[in-house]
Amino acid sequence: MRGARPASGGNGAALLGWFAAFGLMVAHRAFRSDVSLAFLAVWVLLKAARILYLGAPWASLWHQLSTGGLILFTFFMISDPKTTPDHRAGRILYAAFVAGLAFFFLHSLWWQNALIWALCAASPLTPLIDRLLPAGRFTWPGGQALERNDACSSVSASLPA
After folding, report:
1. Averaged over 37-61, what is the pLDDT?
2. Is 85 helix (H, G, I), strand (E, B) or coil?
3. Which residues of 91-114 are buried (b: 16+ CB within 10 A; e: fewer)?
4. Upper half-sphere CA count for residue 129 (Cβ side, 13 Å)
5. Could you report the per-residue pLDDT of 10-45, keeping only the tens digit for each?
6. Is 157 within 8 Å of 149 (Cβ atoms)?
7. Beta carbons within 8 Å of 18's beta carbon, 6+ residues apart
8. Radius of gyration for the alpha carbons in the chain, expressed in angstroms and rounded
């Protein structure tokens, strides 16, 4: 087959679809699919608005969204249950903020790896959002959350005086 390249027959879209489906399953299992979907919705809306503003062809939107890094970030990085806010509304607000900040970093400051930089910049907001919108801490189903104070007191109780 002369001139054939990997994914030239449309395999790239199918592969991205499978990665997105598996990523959504993982985020859903961690009870954080809301943050992934909120981030992706805001990111697509911002990108679509930019396409409209610039008058660029709509095919460029698919090109910008069909990157493995975006799928990896959306379903495996921003959805980490230990670093996202505990309250659902807080997670959606957090996801929208990260998407907006990454969009600004990428299209105004022209920073490479804007998604990672935005996530790093927004991470310190998680305790503030948790304080403003209190909810129960994340624990894996069937697992017990071990409090640091309990572990320290049990260790100190077993030590000789």
Report:
1. 96
2. coil
3. bbbbbbbbbebbbebbeeeeeeeb
4. 20
5. 557 777 677 777 777 877 776 678 998 999 999 999
6. no
7. none
8. 20
Separation CA 30–CA 25 (nearest Å): 9
Please name which of 87, 119, 103 lies closest in space to residue 41, comparing C-alpha atoms.
Answer: 103
**Can you tell me the distance from the alpha carbon of 137 to that of 156, in angstroms, rounded to the nearest whole number?**
25
Would you give the end-to-end CA distance of the chain in angstroms? 79
Helix axes 88-107, 33-54, angle to 10 degrees: 30
**Residue the block writes with tokens 């997105």:** 20
Enter the pTM of the model.
0.76
